[in-house]
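Researcher: Here's a chain I'd like modeled. Treat it as a single chain, no partners, no ligands.
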Amino acid sequence: MSEMLQGMELGPLMRLFKRWTVAQHMTKAPQPIDWICGASMLIRPAVLESIGGMDENYFLYFEETDFCYRAKKAGFATWYVPESRVMHIRGQSTTVTDETKGPRRLPSYWFESRRRYFAMTYGISRAMGIDIVALFACSIGLVKRIVLGRTHTATPYFIRDLIRHSAIRPRNRIFPAVQWK
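Model: Modeled as a single isolated chain. Structure tokens:
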């Protein structure tokens, strides 16, 4: 659902399905969430003993999402705690999310991590389905931006790169075994 919403970028749909929007609005109260940024994690030793560490096959991106998902499957909750304070200046490792430079092309490893996460979490068939939905939604979003004259807001080459790195392509369905950090 989140892949569809992000791709289409349609305000009414985003509001209707806000539960599935990736960038959730956080309240001032602690709350359980699906995942948190790896820059601000505190992990109990019992979690590491139960599920291991983070999968080393992720270079950057999606490793904390994968970790939190595996923790949830093992019965551990992930919480957002607003009293904690961590300064995470996003994109400093890659400058991909540097908003002063406008949209930038995402590196190959972003797509590779995304593909690994969906394939390892949901299986190859569902990862392929997620890619098909994302491609369809991103195409609708691109048409919307063209009609509105906002093509400058699009991530350059996103659809092309998504196709290139998609689980739909047979060569992209082989994954190295999990290696724990």
